[in-house]
Amino acid sequence: MTPVNPEILNALTAGIGAEIASYVFYLEAAKKAETAEFKSVLEDLALEEKKHFQILERQHSSLIKSEQWISLADVLKGEGLPEINEDMAGAHTALIDEVRNADSMKTVLDIAYRLEVEAFEMFDKYAHAATSPEGTKIFTELAKFEKGHMRQVKQMIADYVK
């Protein structure tokens, strides 16, 4: 077997960190939601970010253990979602403070959009830099997920500003 490119492992690790940050952000943002609908959407986005964390974490683990990518379908078949503990969330206190100090829901949504753009750009970059078709596919799918989140948050902003 060919050893896994350390840059791929670094990309997965960076993605894991970004997904944890987004998860923590959305949970905190949901606490500030001014409507039940916004709260529900923000909680759903948190759950989706946790699923993305699961994809990245399981890919990383598989590459370390067997030097093999696993299909997205197989990743999602895994039971339960991994827990994101306080230590993992604690690394994102600045982001949590940014949400808590936001003076309006518009500001919270602007932060959400920024996070989604950053995640999209990161995954898109990794998709283009991947050296295997499997890596390209996984990072491309994650970029698509983030693009969907960008549209969702942009719509929330449009709804809020009405």
How large is the share of residues in beta strands? under 5%
The radius of gyration is 16 Å
Subunit arrangement of the protein: single chain
Q: What is the structural class?
A: mainly alpha
Which whole number gives the mean pLDDT?
85
Describe the protein:
- Helix content is 81%, strand content 0%.
- It contains seven helices and no strands.
- It has helices at residues 6-32, 36-66, 72-77, 86-90, 93-100, 105-129, 133-161.
- Helix 1 (6-32) packs antiparallel against helix 2 (36-66), helix 1 runs parallel beside helix 5 and helix 6 packs antiparallel against helix 7 (133-161).
- It is elongated.
- The model has no long low-confidence stretch (mean pLDDT 85).
Helix/strand layout:
Blueprint: H1 6-32, H2 36-66, H3 72-77, H4 86-90, H5 93-100, H6 105-129, H7 133-161
Helix pairs in contact: 1-2, 1-5, 1-6, 6-7
